[in-house]
Amino acid sequence: MRNATREKIHSAAMELFVHQGFGSTNVQDIADTAGISIGLLYRHYKTKDQLFHEMVAYAVEGLKRNINFFESDQSPKKVIEQFVDEVYTDMMKGEELANLLILINQSLLAGTATASKQNEEILRVNAGLLDATAQLIRKGQQLGEFRSGDAHEMAVFFYAAVQGLAEMKVLLKNNFIMPSPSVLTAFLFKEGE
């Protein structure tokens, strides 16, 4: 029951933080949206900041898992295909991935003093993910699986596209159309493959 309440709180907070922003959301809004009393919310989280930081930490752990996956010994093309398929599936079936990506950005852009250590970790993990992706792209280029080009620029472009799609999904709601995995990788894979 405790976990079910925390999930309700997380779901409500995520929706409100993404759609209203962290600063415009108060704990009463979160409790009301979750369908619980404000007292019950405070039993789980002492502050809105604590809740927000826990949710961002969850998102950062996901980024760390991606770094480990990208550093595996599998074929770079297969790794990217699997990752893009997961992104595609997550974006098609719900809003969690889009919301988590927006939440991470909000954490950085809102930049409260209490979040500085967490923001440093987000920046470090993001840099690590970009580096791991660029290394994967270089490896794919050496194996002839990927187009030539600056691997770091290609990694930045890839994540900018994913982030942009997350924002479009939230803004367009039911009118959002997710590009196919082949469109997401067209800049990367050699033609005809």
Automatic annotation (TrEMBL):
Domain of life: Bacteria
Membrane-traversing stretches: none
Gene Ontology molecular functions: DNA binding
Keywords of this entry: DNA-binding, Transcription, Transcription regulation
Pfam annotation, one family: TetR_N
Domain HTH tetR-type: 3-63
UniProt keyword Endoplasmic reticulum present: no
Positions of the DNA-binding region: 26-45
Name the record gives this protein: HTH tetR-type domain-containing protein
